[in-house]
């Protein structure tokens, strides 16, 4: 596969190897990958993108495996992007999520791709978004992004999805407290996986309390939608009166109990995903979400580009190490250096403005 | 583009194929590759040749390291090589075999496209060095 045009053609024609190669180019930031992604944009828009996140060992990969299997049974094609951390020291990584994705083995219509952070600054969320586009253009119906929900970077990644499911293992009451300001806020659906374990009722209850208090962030407040009623009905300890207080149209984060290893609750989860999708489209939130995502992508690209431009300037000035050394010696300070490096750029922009005027 | 090519990383798959439950060696290699800065995808145990091929193609790996200690290399490895060829992935994937491979079986595997065979006693440094030098330029 030589030229990028051929590669794109092969991808659109459904060649697995071409899709794999395009994602590599995106990951590697290979020469020409930008033109490739630009071309791909014209062919996207068909896929539902779902993000799955949760602490290590919560059962994400197993659940993703079962989701993929169920979607396949329904005749839909699936793409999975599994993200694992990389070593901050060597950049190396062991990407192990594939091991748990055995149900769909031998079925090439489930395309699983492992990615790692490679120590890039905010780059992974861009690379993930681009890889999603590639799978979308390839014709995948459902795309699942799986990532450990630790830290802002990971949250940015999972936000490239339309619907985000956060896995909360049973008996993690204290974890819920610590996570409150983090990934719990971005959940569109809560999944209490390993629901056959002791403590899962309590975890469900704690999550429900949190949702009712509107404690977890903007998206969770508002009235009770019809979406979660089935799930709520499943619990006898549920006090239905509270739900009737407000009848506003907001999305109430449902809680789904699953036992991923046995495939229990997967159908419920899938219908909640579908409900959320419907809600997004009907409420107009989807448009807003997509707009926000593209705005962020543009910003990230600009940041990367400016950064790359300045790399050359840095080299001219003797490299970052020398500059850092001069700060250490007390000769100057980081602010002055950044200012000096940026001066010519600002001058150029000023000139442009004068010309325009 | 301007972002530079320093984001290239060697992608390897460490694969256990067939009815062979001995994965200590595969774990050691996976860990060593990680520490060498590679991205390692570990297949898990008891995988069929077609599963290995599927994973290698989808992950677009530069290097496929197959660990076999069961003695079934002469049937399993050719199946993997054929599978890679089917997807057009054979010529630019560096395929390595590690494990107990008798001397007389080695040439046929090489003829089939295996780049190197590492038997017992191979040092990890040697393997990493080989991967660094021979990983396909893409």
TrEMBL record, chain A:
Protein name: LAO/AO transport system kinase
Keyword rRNA-binding: no
Keyword presence, Manganese: no
Keywords, ordered alphabetically: Chaperone, GTP-binding, Hydrolase, Kinase, Nucleotide-binding, Transferase
InterPro entries reported in the protein's UniProt record: GTPase/Isobutyryl-CoA_mutase, GTPase_ArgK, P-loop_NTPase
Gene Ontology terms for molecular function: GTP binding; GTPase activity; kinase activity
NCBIfam families: lao
Family as reported in the entry's similarity comment: Belongs to the SIMIBI class G3E GTPase family. ArgK/MeaB subfamily.
Protein origin, superkingdom: Archaea
From TrEMBL, chain B:
Entry keyword annotation includes Ligase: no
Coiled-coil intervals, chain numbering: none
SUPFAM superfamilies from the UniProt entry: Cobalamin (vitamin B12)-binding domain (SSF52242)
A Pfam family that the UniProt record links to this protein: B12-binding
Entry annotated with the keyword Metal-binding: yes
Cofactor: adenosylcob(III)alamin
Keywords: Cobalamin, Cobalt, Isomerase, Metal-binding
Transmembrane segments: none
InterPro entries the record matches: Acid_CoA_mut_C (IPR006159), Cobalamin-bd (IPR006158), Cobalamin-bd_sf (IPR036724)
GO molecular function, one term: isomerase activity
Top-rank lineage group of the source organism: Archaea
Domain B12-binding: 9-138
NCBIfam families: acid_CoA_mut_C
Similarity annotation: Belongs to the methylamine corrinoid protein family.
Protein name as annotated: Methylmalonyl-CoA mutase, C-terminal domain
Organism expressing this protein natively: Natronorubrum texcoconense
